[in-house]
Amino acid sequence: MPDIRYLLPASEPKFKDSGITKAGELLKAWNGIPATGIGLIGAPLSKTSISHSGAALAPEVIRKMLHSFTTYSVEMDKDLESVVITDFGDITPHVTDLKETQNRFVQVIQEVLERNPDIIPVILGGDHSISASSIKAFRKNKGPVGIIQFDAHHDLRNLVDGGPSNGTPFRQLIEGNDIKGEHLIQIGIRDFSNGIMYTNYAKENGITVYSMNEVNRLGVRRLLEESVRTLKSKVSCIYVSVDMDVLDQAFAPGCPAIGPGGMTSDELIQGVQYLSTCPDVKGMDIVEVDPTLDFRDMTSRLAAFLILQFLLYRS
Ligand SMILES: N=CN[C@@H](CCC(=O)O)C(=O)O
Ligand SMILES: [Mn+2]
Ligand SMILES: [Mn+2]
């Protein structure tokens, strides 16, 4: 670009405060050398969604939303300006072959974990189907995995009606012997959003289910402390799966399956903060954000904020 004062590439911000670093500036593309800290992997797939979903666009928008935050935490009086978030990029889906796409997700995440043994990946969906691939890769790389799933839904649907979808990831993992039911803890399950046969399936398979009433009565922090205590002696790592529709529709307009009576954004933020302080937590995904349904990128922005909270307490 020729050097003319005040003439900048269109992609540059129009205003730059010299005293402030934007969180988006922490993203550095992976250079092939084993990375440490938090790493982003995009899993842009939503053709597997039961409802119409543009969640495949979320990794791009969530990364962009990191630019709407600074790197300074007033609560911790800590500036993350010198921290690196390694960006592994997005996994390329096959255009029509969903099985092939899911295999690619397993392969790529597994290879990233192999070549970066100390990385804490944050996998950006995509719809919730991507968790089946991602957790499978974790199991292959790290051994038995415990899961803490924030969700309004069980995601234990049968595989006969529609094959592997965003309604089936945890059923697939249990039936494929990738996880045990007793190592799955679901938080935020809501009324009139599930079927009785799936709540029964959860009971029969030893899955721990904390409904919204329990979240409201006991508080997220207490449930998570209990969950981590239960899991950590039984598995070699804990994986956190955040389906953003666990939030009340008021906080997450950009999810396909929104509804009332869900968690507040603050409850989810505090939950993620607590989990990021637990050394057994080795990875997280954020799924079900559809930027095409969102209002002013509220849901993507909250997803980006969760990444920063995770980073804050991990670095
Ligand atoms: N992960 C989401 N699962 C929900 C919503 C599915 C949808 O409507 O797209 C479920 O199975 O009910
Ligand atoms: Mn859900
Ligand atoms: Mn889900």
TrEMBL record:
EC numbers for this chain: 3.5.3.8
Q: Which GO MF term does the entry hold, naming one?
A: metal ion binding
What the record notes about the co-factor is:
Binds 2 manganese ions per subunit.
User: What keywords appear on the UniProt entry?
Assistant: Histidine metabolism, Hydrolase, Manganese, Metal-binding
Q: Which cofactor does it need?
A: Mn(2+)
Q: Where does Mn(2+) bind?
A: 128, 151, 153, 155, 243, 245
Q: Which residues form a coiled coil?
A: none
- Name one process (GO BP) from the record: L-histidine catabolic process to glutamate and formamide
Q: Which family does it belong to?
A: Belongs to the arginase family.
**One Pfam family it belongs to:** Arginase
- Is Oxidoreductase found in the keyword set? no
Q: What is the lineage of its organism?
A: Bacteria, Bacillati, Bacillota, Bacilli, Bacillales
What is the protein's name according to its record? Formimidoylglutamase
